[in-house]
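Practice problem: predict the structure.
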Amino acid sequence: MAKADKSKTRSARGTGRLYKRTPDGQEHRADSKVQGVFWIQYTLNGKRQRHALTGTDGKPITDLRKAEAERKRLTAPLRAGKQVEQLKALTAALAQAEGVEVQAVEDARPVLRIADAWEAYIQSPDRPDSGESTLRDYAGHWTRFTDWTELQDPKPMSLRDITLKHAQDYAATLNGGTGTSPNTYNKHTAFLKLFFRVLQDAAGMKENPFDKIRRKNLKTNSRRELTIAELKDVLEEAEGELQTLLFIGTFTGLRLGDCCTLTWGETDLDRGLIRRVPNKTAKSGKPVLIGIPAALHAKLSETPKTKRKGYVLPKYAALYTYQNSNGLTVRRGDITDEIQKVFKDCKIRTHKEGTGFITNPKTGKKESTGKRAVLEVGFHSLRHTWVSLHAAAGTPQAVIQNVIGHSNPSMTAHYTHVNEETARRTAGVLTLNEPEPTARIVPDWIREKLKTMTAKNWKAIRAELMGGAE
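Answer:
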């Protein structure tokens, strides 16, 4: 068998060694068929030099023919043996190589396309260990951003194409007339800052485009609590599963998501207790224990025992957990719309006066106030009302906090363990009865004195009733 002709791969004396380098740093012969950037190695004044070859356009050379031509040009002074020319030519080549070497390696790396970025984020070991609900929200933020990039000209194709200008323009769309609240704005931009930070190295990005996007100051608009009369109207107005949903919210203080996805396995009617790990604190795995008040017990007992399986509210559980093809929970708004309609049917104003849309009394048409609608009454109002009713009934703050939860560590330090008996006793104080007016009891001896009072003796009787003081 004939031996391979090695002369074809050897470098002529004085022309340096030409080789190919792949993104993973591996070196290959110049005539190798692997994809990579051509590099050259040579000796100058006793020192070994090596750098990537670049064309006149500054881009790394990946074609063998062009690489041979560039090697010939660079090493011509070496072959001529002219030291001064060697130094001038090679010093210039080194200066150019230093400027493009890193870029050459970066350009040779695989590009992380925007279309593949979400999966890369999910698989990244550097991302935070977010819960399922948080990841669904993140997926929605990312979809909204990628939909926006599709409309840009030129359209960015990879994460490296996203610049500070893109980040600023996208933030401006969130800040514009889209009805985005400061809280939503902050959630979107904070997620994108996190997203690009996690993938910055994998995408070969020099900087995070969202690092300089500032948060907005939040103006908290707390939901107001409902009066007992309003609560009664709301609970009577609703029907079917919606009525049960409002009963659960009113008598447990749970958030909408927890009420919609409450299961019969978490609801023990025989013991009068609900034991559930709230969605918002699911990562901790710590359940809350809630006593079931009589009114809620009666409502839940309407469901036959044979049907107490799975979700307590199957319709709203399906709406709350539904996801479209992009992983977005797009049906939760339907639940909110049904709830708000009940409030409005009960003549309860749900938005702060002077915000959102108002009805023109002359035309009967809805007109914009020019201000974003500020919600004052919604499902979360039931949670506020639950707290107020318990506080008014003298329920210990630690017991209330155990159910409601609190993000402040100083408040958490005061929590006490709530056992089953405490939970049941706490539920017993929660009713929707109007407080009875305090009756004034007049002793019989005073009644007799008052019967004998005349225009002549009234002063004497008054003095007697006041203990002799005139």
